[in-house]
Amino acid sequence: MRGIGMVAAGVASLSLLTACATRNAPLEPLQKARAAVSTAMNDPKVVQLAPLELKNATDTLSKADNAWTRDADAAEATHLSELALQRAQIAQNVAQTRQLDADIKQAGVNAERQRLEGTAARAQMQAEQARAAAAANATAAEQARQQAQAAQAQVKDLQGQLNDLQAKQTERGLLVTLGDVLFEFGKADLTSQAAPRLDKLAQFLAEFPSRKLLIEGYTDSVGTDAINQKLSERRAAAVQSALVTRGVAPDRITVRGYGKEFPVADNASPEGRAMNRRVEIVIADENGNLRSRR
């Protein structure tokens, strides 16, 4: 009996030593996962553009480390390591995709800026040519001066209108956003604060009568889908009605409501919900391009 006890004790000691050796031995899948996650963490674009995906990768790697160093569970550690590796690669891919999207949007903004700068340059050239041609005739010179001033004023006025409207160029067209503060709470009635903004928008549209526009209503996620859908449609229609009364032709306007769809911020916070309660006006570019959501 004493011999059996000694054998059992020896086996237990050997098992303990084996477990310790296993924990200290390198696990190739875990090493690869650590390298991949480290690469992703040291990439500023991944940190900035794919933070949630990167956190998933680091959390999974931590679980893999625990499975190996604490539990000596090679199978579980291997599975979690492979998952962490995949999630690190996903974070890098997501960051690359989002950077590409940002580059495309910036290219659109740059193109619009170049177009405006080109318009200003052409107007300036026309002004110089007009002044030179009018040197021999005082009446013609005065007319040329007035035309040059008008051309320069038009370019300056156009840029000023875009700034006043807080418009930005997107792949869908020129985007103007009206916030929730311009409506009565929970209603589709426009407040008095909306009038100056709509006046400026109508004035801009009057200068470009061939451009079509979309008016799209959105809500936050509070309330039922049916209520939110109806409210988004009514608010978009209210903006349409306000523009029509200001001289915008009805056949230029398409109205849609999307309810809580296409949020621009997280609905978990009051600030995010306020940003999601909006009406977006998308204006066709100079070539008539206008893209709807669907």
From TrEMBL:
Major location category of this protein: membrane
Matching Gene3D superfamilies: OmpA-like domain
InterPro entries: Bact_OuterMem_StrucFunc, DUF4398, OMP_bac, OmpA-like, OMPA-like_CS, OmpA-like_sf
Location of this chain's protein in the cell: Cell outer membrane
GO cellular component term, pick one: cell outer membrane
Domain OmpA-like: 170-287
Keywords: Coiled coil, Membrane, Signal
Signal peptide (residue range): 1-21
Coiled-coil intervals: 113-168
UniProt-listed SUPFAM superfamilies: OmpA-like
PROSITE patterns xrefs: OMPA_1 (PS01068), OMPA_2 (PS51123), PROKAR_LIPOPROTEIN (PS51257)
Protein name from the UniProt record: OmpA family protein
Source organism of this protein record: Diaphorobacter ruginosibacter
